[in-house]
Amino acid sequence: MSFHQCFIHTHIIRNHMCVLSRCYIKSVKHPTAGIIVIGDEILKAQVKDTNSYYMCNLLYKCGIKVKKISVISDNVEEISKEIKDASSKYTYVITSGGIGPTHDDVTYTGLAKAFNDQLHYHPKLVDIIKHYSGIDDASSPVYKMAQIPQKASLKFGLNTGTSKPNIYPYIVLGNVYVFPGSPVFLEKAFQNLYEELLSANKRFIKEEVFIDAREDLFANALSTVVKEFPNVSFGSYPVSDCRYFKSFVTIESDNKNDTERAKQRFYELNPANIFVNFDRTPHMDCIIKYNNFLQNFSHRTIYEQSLEKLRQFYQNPERVLIHIDGSIESSIVIHLAYICKTQLHFDNKLQVINFKKKEVLVDIEEFIKEMVDKYNLIVHTVETIADNKTNTTIQPHLRPILLLGKIEKSSENKINSNYNSIGNMNQLQIDNPLRNWTKCDVWTFASSLYIPYKLVA
Q1: Cβ contacts of 118 within 8 Å, gap of 6 or more
Q2: How do 233-238 and 176-179 pair as beta strands?
Q3: Which of 139, 418, 428, 438 shows the smallest number of beta carbons within 10 Å?
Q4: Alpha helices per DSSP H over 296-420
């Protein structure tokens, strides 16, 4: 059989709606990877795992298919079994966590057991630890990090900034690559492995098609292209929290020609009016896109007035803060400010402030990180605490200006109250560049330029 088709039915309940998700997966030969995340702190939700997301993203970019992510406890037997099983199934096995001086750091022990090996003090690691810790006592717990399997080797990789070997290595045994659990250290070390793999593997050529229709309306067409293009992989994903489209389809293969032909065929099999020319990067060429929007929209004055107002504020960019909360209005203000920055050519990054509640949703935090990456923002986080005061490390500005996106007057009062609890902020100037916008104005602008948002206003 040249391909198989797998239907994964997932019921997603969001906003009291139940959505059926369908994935079409076919075998395309690529190197594979298994990721093993090790740590009781992950399983107990004491620490959030961001490493697997980071690694999956880079592995995909260099043409490696991640087939499994395991999260396991700090148990030698479990670590050994998981590593041994993954090593026999996948091209690469990557572990994170369980490396350190404490009693529960047993990844190296589990690794040695998986390969019928013994631990020993690697002389190079001993020298490194002695030099950087300043501890010359071999019985110190810190030397536990120098005790690795005898068959394992060290990989230092090059520091991209200095082109010199990194100070501390990652460990390799067979097809298993062992990294620390701390994201700061993992990301730096994993970048070297990624660059090594990138030069050796084919990258995926992927296209995304955005559709303003339910999955059942294009399922037959998708089944047809799955059969017609056995060397192409397809995925179909419903979306229930976005006003721009209802579903999107991914089309990927080893080469551009196959991907493009499959995409074109999928278009031919569906009504043209269901497709959305969605833009994941509205910040790129933002001035050109904004001007094109104005040319196609007759009631342009309100948008021009808001942009002009922002231009006045950003004559002194160091004074301006934008409230970010995931709402579409907040994102519009950030996008307009980014247009100002591009027009005025000032070097300062746009500054945003997030009033973080204790019960803040994880997806809001992730959205803010996405906005930081897109618009190159500086985020000041203010954590609201029980006595209605706030904690922050933000330094008071000279007559700071806070820009709100919310139209409701109550929003200004609430934000002003939060700010007044921060010392020396009694001269804060609050303004709302969207004060005269209607809901229709908001969504006309947002849906024309595909402004990212998380919360529906």
Answers
A1: 112, 149, 150
A2: unpaired
A3: 139
A4: 301-313, 328-344, 362-375, 409-420
